Amino acid sequence: MRKPLVVVGAGIAGLSVALSAAPRPVWLVSRGRPGEASASALAQGGVAAALGEGDDPAQHAQDTLVAGAGHNDEENVHWLVSQAASAIAWLAGQGVCFDRDASGYCLGREGGHGRHRIVHARGDATGAAIVAALAARAETAAHITWFDAHALQGIGLRAGRVAGVRLADAAGETVGLQAADVVLATGGIGALFAATTNPPGADGAGLALALEAGAQARDLEFIQFHPTALAVDVGGPLPLLTEALRGAGAVLRDGDGHALMAGRHPLGDLAPRDVVAREVWRERHAGGSAWLDATALGDRLASDFPTALAIGRAQGIDPRRQWLPVAPAAHFHMGGVSVDALGRSTVPGLHAVGEVACNGVHGANRLASNSLLEGVAFGRRLGAWLASHASAPGATADEWITLGDDAPPCDLRTLRCLLAQSLGPVRDGDGLRRALAEIAATPGLSQAWQGRLATRLLHAALARRDSLGAHWREDTPAGPSIHQRIATPAYGEIP
Ligand code: SIN
After folding, report:
1. Residues in domain FAD-dependent oxidoreductase 2 FAD-binding (predicted)?
2. What is the whole-number distance in angstroms between the Cα of residue 405 and the centre of ligand 1?
3. Whose CA is closest to atom 1 on ligand 1?
């Protein structure tokens, strides 16, 4: 009898692990129904792969290191970019129909990339197309049993190593699974912020549980903000306006109509995401406004960016004729559960992959469209490894790690505002200390897992006194120069 493996999370990383672990039996756990509720499904831009003429993985690696402010694990970066072509081929083999023309894959461009290298599907609906195809495969795969609409409640340990998980189904009934290998692919923490592009399930529960179980964390202070979320009150996650729009000619403007990024970075609108997010933040913080002008794209919006067009129209804005108001929003966590290149955490039997994990590949600021690539490349690698490396036979747990109390809804709202103010694109020590004090003084937060996780994030940000990548502190004079540690390549004119 083969030993089952538990995979928690059904975005691109979890699905890639589950499919690649065949023939080992997999219990796949997801909060939503198959194909729903993951951040991967909301990803628009695509998958970065150096497939264009004149491009190669070394250039992709260099752009990844520059965007990451040189804080990246270089070995993992070089491995990641070397896997891009096979990741695309594998996804296509799973049924993903990437956009093509007579010369091959259509390649878009996003911030921080020196070349057109974003492979996409259904224009700007890449994440949805990938998750739908992988979920359809997983639903019919003989080795996968899918526990959908189940929430992870606890991790069982025996003598310090993983022994199983406890789940709750939609009716609140508890389900126990005994397994010596558990993979967390639970996504990021954006839902802890007042403005985010992430779905509500990206609340950091997987990260919090791993930390409670004793797993080491890494780089928790590095949180990426997307510069162009649509600035509207939709009572939930803010709709994302993909960077690929700027790659195709859209321009950020200030309230007076001037090009907002002009003279602020050699790559202008296509500067790395942390740089653009800070400039948009500063403009708005100074009482101004920021706008995405995609009018030059005209009818290309309907054919190449149907999601962006629909997002604008849903708010009564026609992006073919009108500018879109934008604001930065929490988008991606570079930090997470510290793992090695195979996804092994410091707790034996507990693995992590995708956004919940940190193997250092993204450094201090992720390069656009490297997250779907990371999910599929590292997910396949971990799945293939676990197919042939089952941990010692599971014994029943003698200790259960659970999250404990949830913060009450009103305190959670307070926490989201606190984190947006203190841990946003621009930070300072006083703001971080004030947020810590307010959490400590609010019993509903200090005793809840969300408050404990936020405290870890704030302490990590306070401990890093220099500015680096997405962690930008206004109160440290040495900061800005550190960002230039890796020289910006001499990009040619942006075509
Ligand atoms: C985007 O399409 O702008 C976001 C893609 C990403 O997060 O890399």
Report:
1. 6-372
2. 33
3. 242
∠67-338-363 over CA atoms, to 5°?
5
Dump pLDDT digits (tens) for 213-272.
999 999 999 999 999 999 998 888 999 999 989 989 999 999 999 999 999 888 899 998
Look at residue 495 and tell me whether its pLDDT is greater than 70: no
Cα(425) to ligand 1 centroid in Å equals 17
Q: Which of 110, 270, 355, 367 to mutate to test the pocket of ligand 1 (most atoms within 8 A of CB)?
A: 110
* Domain locations along the chain: 5-222+334-402, 225-330, 406-495
Candidate CATH numbers 3.40.120.10, 3.40.50.10540, 3.10.450.50, 3.50.50.60; the one for domain 5-222+334-402: 3.50.50.60
List, chain by chain if needed, residues with CB within 6 Å of any ligand 1 atom: 43-45, 242-244, 368-369, 371
- Cα 127 to ligand 1 centroid, rounded to whole Å: 10
Tokens of 240: 């994302």
Kindly state the helix (H) or strand (E) to which residue 224 belongs, with its residue range.
Answer: strand 223-230
Which top CATH class is 406-495? Answer: mainly alpha
CATH entry, 225-330, from 3.40.50.720, 3.30.300.30, 3.10.20.310, 3.90.700.10: 3.90.700.10
